[in-house]
Design brief:
- By secondary structure, this protein is mainly β.
- It has a domain of about 130 residues.
- Helix content is about 5%, strand content about 40%.
- The protein has a five-stranded antiparallel beta sheet, with no helix packed on it. It has a four-stranded antiparallel beta sheet with strand order 4-5-6-7, with no helix packed on it. It has a four-stranded antiparallel beta sheet with strand order 8-9-10-11, with no helix packed on it.
- Strand 4 and strand 5 form a beta hairpin.
- It is globular and about 45 Å long.
- The N and C termini lie far apart (about 90 Å).
- Keywords: Signal.
Length: about 400
């Protein structure tokens, strides 16, 4: 009897120990017990605001098309937005940007700016502003928005949380494209009625420097991560020009070789769209007449043309994934940067093409935005690359 009792006791102790061990293991895996918590998986999505090619609803409708970067850029969901003209029709989307501080995505249209909370996907506010709204840019801390009026005399500086106006910056340059510097200290303001790039002090909201003059009025542009160089499209040029952001001087004019300047469907200039790979080793340039993206070696100065990629429609913008693996022209082609091959195409839930000049990558963890890309294809190197 004594031996049987001992065996029974050992069995009961073993059962209790096994149950306790299983509970601890489960608790640690689920993050509810005393063990280390496992971080939620980061999800990487591409948010595409439409209509992002003029007001063409055939390229994605009216709202935000969301694609899963890690699942062959397949369609995930559609988020309805505001942004209507006075006649009730969807307005042209002019710009898109993200604030991690507010957990919101901001979409500018011809008339207004709207703020959409990323977790709930609800429009928190939409406000109209004097002079309309063009392509916005948000400060690195996510709290301030520089908002160009629609090709008019000034930029409006607004609070990202409320949309309230902080001040105005008058440049008389036909305000158009805007890049907030990665250091948060300077903002670059390009007007399509000026050959000079204005540079604003983000603390005082005043113009402190001008860069140029460039060969013609400035269209899209990008900068390197150390904020020493600017690469600009200008009217009439199939190519781009380079300026020194520190000295303010014009440096180089780079012309695409082997292709003719032809008629373009939109924007009125041969090259409308330029971006820099995150490692800053290459410049990718849009060619609207020839439906191509031209790639330049940016490890030398001036950059040297390397190759060209045929895309499915006229490209009017280009940016890159945060990891530098993919290039995103506005045509909806997804290009592998290394192989130069089109590996995916953006399509909605009905297998229709999605195209837009306004898209941004957003990473989520636990349902909240934890990282975001940039619509401009800005370089990500904090120290300037040495040029050969």
């Amino acid at each position: 009897m004594k031996t049987q009792r001992m065996i029974l006791l050992y069995l009961l102790c073993g059962l209790v120990l096994t149950s306790a061990t299983a509970w601890v293991f489960t608790a640690e895996v689920e993050g509810t017990g005393p063990g280390p918590k496992i971080a939620p998986k980061v999800q990487r999505y591409l948010y595409v605001a439409t209509p992002g090619v003029r007001n063409y609803l055939g390229y994605g409708g009216h709202g935000i098309q969301v694609f899963d970067i890690d699942n062959q850029h397949r369609f995930v969901k559609f988020i309805p937005t505001k942004g209507l003209q006075p006649n009730g029709k969807p307005s042209n989307v002019k710009g898109v940007d993200v604030s991690l501080a507010t957990n919101c995505i901001y979409i500018s249209t011809l008339e207004a700016l709207q703020c959409i909370e990323l977790t709930t996907e609800k429009v928190l506010w939409e406000k109209q502003y004097e002079g309309g709204v063009d392509r916005i840019s948000i400060s690195p801390d996510g709290l301030t928005i520089y908002m160009p009026s629609l090709e008019k005399e000034f930029w409006t500086v607004v609070d990202a949380k409320t949309g309230d106006v902080i001040t105005k910056i008058v440049t008389h340059s036909g305000s158009h494209n805007t890049i907030y510097g990665p250091d948060g200290k300077l903002v670059y303001l390009a007007g399509l009625k000026s050959t000079m790039l204005n540079v604003a002090d983000a603390k005082t909201h005043t113009i402190t420097k001008k860069v140029g003059p460039f060969g013609a009025d400035i269209r899209p542009f990008t900068i390197n991560g150390s904020q020493t160089l600017v690469y600009v499209n200008v009217n009439g040029l199939l190519g781009f020009e380079v300026g020194d952001l520190e000295s303010g001087k014009f440096l180089h004019r780079v012309v695409v070789e082997g292709f003719n300047i032809g008629d373009v469907k939109r924007h009125g200039c041969p090259s409308h769209g330029i971006g820099m790979t995150p490692d800053e080793k290459e410049i990718w340039l849009c060619d609207g007449a020839n439906n191509r993206v031209h790639v330049f070696d940016n490890t030398v100065m001036p950059p040297v043309q390397k190759t060209s990629i045929l895309v499915r429609d006229m490209p009017g913008w280009i940016t890159f994934s945060l990891d530098g693996k993919y290039a995103y022209p506005s045509t909806g082609d997804v290009i592998d940067v290394k192989t130069r091959k089109i590996v995916h195409t953006l399509e909605d839930q009905h297998s229709n093409w999605v195209q837009s000049e306004k898209m941004v990558e957003i990473h989520f963890s636990g349902g909240k935005a934890v990282a975001a890309g940039d619509q401009f294809g800005i370089g990500q190197q904090k120290k300037a690359l040495k040029k050969a």
